[in-house]
């Protein structure tokens, strides 16, 4: 029924996506689309917003609660956000594991270039001052097919477990919308594990064990019937050293080359962020130089050839999960998430992606080796970008989790089954 979402500028489930695509592509084709029974809806914004009519003040909260911008530059306030998320954020369907963002990861995700404090929105209990809910946005430039959109990415919507099912989420979503609108931003991208009207793409999570025994002992990995623990351990064993010649950690001097390669590589997909050089430096270079540091958030490796040209890069970031009813030795799982990558092999004329597939398998295997060296227990990846070219070969298995991608106030035809979206922390 979607009492809230049916009032918002998002496509309905029965919006005719094929007609939207046809209408977007050419007038000749939209004439053809006219033959389809439903009216062809145009690609683009769903609702025009008059910035002068955007309320200057938030709508009031129920008695006992108040709005509170969170200052993430103030360590105790960053602690409060981490504490809220660590106890109340996303869990798997069986409530066995819950995302546990490091403070460093939160600061990285929420203080991307152009960030503003007014988009880090908290709700506090008036008496105790306790932070009980949060929602955030960061600015970004999106490209949907050939259209560029100045938008935002909304993330970290979280409500304390004791305040659930009280219709507070719509209030938070309308407040972050108001704050985006005030800055002239009328479109947004967001992801969720739940189905809402209406995903533009849907991805599945895949997992590749790095420490199978640990994953088995915390209940993350099953023992397949007909296998033994020892055989599982052997199956996931990795070489000690990486295999790609010229592979090294990305440095500040690589920003131009990675920026060029990343944006060219992303042109191959229909929905992606467009990165500025500042954004490349922010998202790919960690302040922590030691690749084994426990405070490190993101790892980016480049491949430099003998002519000193950067031919490839890949990256992964750290996101731990806490083991909710951890009776055993382990209270957290350290997961590396495949982030962005790019390779000149994508631009080689080739039959059936053979060159690209071989190259990505080499790079992905090195990513697994490096993640293992950085003490990760599992490597996760979604079915997006070119990931399906290496997932099976590198022994990733399909998980239960889905991730749906959504656009706010923007209509476009569906993207082919998820292999076609940008990444998301
Ligand atoms: C969700 N994840 O359907 P209807 S993802 C959006 N995203 O509305 P109540 C959600 N909407 O069906 P609760 C949602 N989950 O009546 C539920 N909803 O139309 C909808 N979990 O509200 C739901 N974090 O307050 C329903 O529900 C309405 O108390 C019900 O709160 C929900 O960050 C939630 O999974 C998720 O903390 C906050 O369960 C709570 O259950 C919780 O009665 C654990 O809400 C943590 C969790 C979500 C992670 C994420 C992306 C959020 C995107 C929000 C949409 C942004 C739109 C763009 C705005 C900017 C526009 C510009 C410009
Ligand atoms: Mg609620």
How would you describe this protein?
The protein is α+β, with helices and mostly antiparallel strands and 425 residues long. It has 10 helices and 14 strands. Strands 1, 2, 3, 4, 5, 6, 7, 8, 9, 10, 11, 12, 13 and 14 form a 14-stranded mixed β-sheet that branches. The radius of gyration is 22 Å and the shape is globular. Bound molecules: tetradec-13-ynoic acid - COA thioester (YNC) and magnesium ion.
In brief:
The protein is α+β, with helices and mostly antiparallel strands.
Tertiary shape: globular
What are the low-pLDDT stretches, counting only 5+ consecutive residues below 50? 27-31, 33-38
Number-wise, the strands total 14
Strand content: 25-35%
Order of helices and strands: HHEHEHEEEHEEHHEHEHEEEHEE
Q: What can be said about the biggest beta sheet?
A: 14 strands, mixed
How far apart the termini lie comes to 29 Å
The percentage helix is 10-25%
Number of helices: 10
Bound small molecules, by name, code or SMILES, are: tetradec-13-ynoic acid - COA thioester, magnesium ion
Q: Could you tell me the mean pLDDT? A: 93
Counting helices, strands and paired strands, the structural category is: alpha+beta
- From the alpha carbons, calculate the radius of gyration and give it in angstroms: 22 Å
Strand-helix topology:
Elements: H1 17-25, H2 27-33, E1 65-69, H3 75-88, E2 97-100, H4 103-110, E3 120-125, E4 131-144, E5 147-159, H5 168-182, E6 187-192, E7 201-209, H6 212-217, H7 229-235, E8 247-249, H8 255-266, E9 271-274, H9 277-284, E10 298-304, E11 310-323, E12 332-343, H10 354-373, E13 378-382, E14 397-408
Parallel strand pairs: 5-6, 12-13
Antiparallel strand pairs: 1-3, 2-11, 3-4, 4-5, 4-9, 6-14, 7-13, 7-14, 8-10, 10-11, 11-12
Helix pairs in contact: 1-2
This protein binds tetradec-13-ynoic acid - COA thioester and magnesium ion.
Magnesium ion is lined by residues 159, 163-169.
């Amino acid at each position: 029924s979607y009492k809230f979402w049916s009032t918002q500028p998002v496509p309905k489930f029965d919006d005719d996506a094929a007609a939207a695509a046809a209408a977007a592509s050419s007038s000749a084709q939209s004439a053809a689309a006219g033959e389809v029974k439903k009216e062809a809806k145009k690609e683009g914004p769903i609702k025009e917003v008059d910035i002068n009519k955007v309320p200057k003040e938030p709508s009031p909260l129920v008695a006992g609660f108040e709005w509170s911008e969170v200052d993430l530059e103030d360590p105790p306030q960053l602690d409060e956000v981490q504490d809220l998320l660590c106890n109340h954020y996303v869990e798997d369907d069986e409530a066995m594991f819950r995302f546990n963002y490091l403070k460093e990861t939160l600061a990285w995700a929420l203080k991307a270039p152009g960030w503003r404090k007014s988009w880090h929105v908290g709700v506090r209990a008036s008496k105790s001052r306790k932070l009980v809910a949060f929602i955030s946005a960061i600015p970004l430039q999106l490209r949907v097919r050939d259209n560029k959109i100045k938008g935002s990415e909304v993330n970290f919507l979280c409500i304390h477990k004791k305040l659930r099912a009280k219709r507070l989420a719509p209030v938070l979503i309308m407040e972050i919308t108001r704050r985006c609108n005030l800055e002239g931003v009328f479109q947004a991208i967001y992801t969720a594990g739940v189905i809402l009207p209406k995903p533009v793409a849907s991805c599945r999570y895949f997992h590749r064990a790095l420490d199978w025994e640990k994953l088995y002992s915390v209940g993350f990995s099953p023992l397949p019937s007909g296998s033994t623990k020892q055989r599982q351990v052997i199956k996931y064993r990795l070489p000690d050293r990486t295999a790609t010649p010229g592979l090294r950690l990305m440095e500040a001097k690589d920003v131009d080359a990675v920026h060029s390669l990343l944006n060219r590589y992303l042109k191959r997909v229909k929905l992606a962020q467009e990165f500025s050089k500042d954004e490349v430096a922010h998202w790919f270079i960690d302040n922590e130089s030691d690749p084994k540091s426990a405070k490190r958030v993101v790892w980016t490796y480049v491949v430099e050839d003998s002519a000193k040209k950067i031919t490839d890069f890949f990256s992964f970031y750290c996101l731990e999960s806490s083991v909710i009813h951890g009776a055993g030795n382990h209270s957290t799982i350290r997961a590396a998430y495949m982030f962005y990558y790019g390779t000149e092999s994508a631009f080689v004329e080739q039959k059936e992606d053979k060159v690209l597939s071989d190259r990505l398998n080499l790079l992905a295997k090195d990513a697994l080796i490096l993640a293992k060296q950085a003490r990760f227990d599992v490597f996760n990846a979604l079915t997006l970008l070119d990931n399906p070219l290496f997932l099976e070969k590198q022994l990733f298995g399909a998980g239960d989790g889905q991730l749906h991608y959504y656009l706010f106030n923007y209509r476009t035809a569906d993207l082919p089954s998820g292999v076609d979206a940008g990444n998301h922390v």
